[in-house]
Design goal:
Helix content: under 10%
Number of domains: 1
Radius of gyration: 20 Å
Distance between the termini: 22 Å
Structural class: mainly beta
Mean pLDDT: 89
CATH topology: Methylamine Dehydrogenase, Chain H
Number of helices: 0
Order of helices and strands: EEEEEEEEEEEEEEEEEEEEEEE
Length: about 300
Amino acid sequence: MLPKWITILLLSVFSLTAAGQTHQWAVQLPTSANGASVIISQTQDDSSNIYVGGTFRDSLYFTDDTLFFSNGLNQTLFVAKYDGEGNFIWAKAFKDVTASFLCEIAVNSKSEVVLYGSYINHSLSKIPFGKDTLSRRSAVFIAFLSVNGEFTAARDLAFSYTCLASALALNKKDEIHVAFYVSTGGYGISDGNTVISGTGYNYVAAKFSSDASELEWTQIYSTQNVRQIFDITTDRFDQVYYSIITTRNGTIHGKMPGDSSLAGLVWIRPDGQFKDVVFTELNDQIVRITDVCAIDSAHIYVSG
């Protein structure tokens, strides 16, 4: 059983500059006059290289490169690599789409850069990712890049009329854990060469193999019960935890926390079996749990 409640709310910001500390370097990512950009995720590899990613439109300028994407006010995702001293190495963007959105960047044990996000592709054109191509109208996807910035593989994880990627976590075996939203009109979740179909508005937590070729398990929640899944993580025993916020009078794994919308934490075993769920007791005073970190089921740290 999970502890009664294990929340640590990080509500204050501290500064080290008063003690004489400052940043070692900083870079800007300017855009053209009509452009816009935002950084959404960043990570670091074992060689201290830094990967940053987000979305942009029009032109995005780097030290030795410029990325372009022009489709009205739509934006597309980008990823850039810097070394530990802040020197620019490479940048990539998704261009053959109507729009795309980055959720999270990770680096796996093979030093591959793993991108998780979603895209809209109204023209149904083929989007090249190395040996793979994606061509759904709207999907959440996983893509892999080499250390040199070359796309090596990609897979659609799920597709529907509207899709939204919300969280990514890799365990020590590089198995992929994700959360996403799929809408009505019929949706599909990829499992190798087959598709698991469903209907309705749903939030989904899922586990895929390290190359995303096989679906291990899913937990599917109707939006009548869950308003959103925010973050997902694994512990040292490959158990899975993800943060949710319920609807009023929503039922989560047989538990109804009450007539308030509450933040909660779900615990799933490595094989996908439900283990436990706990909720806050502050009745709407906590809006969301945005970050979860777990060592094991007795040591879980969350913030929001």
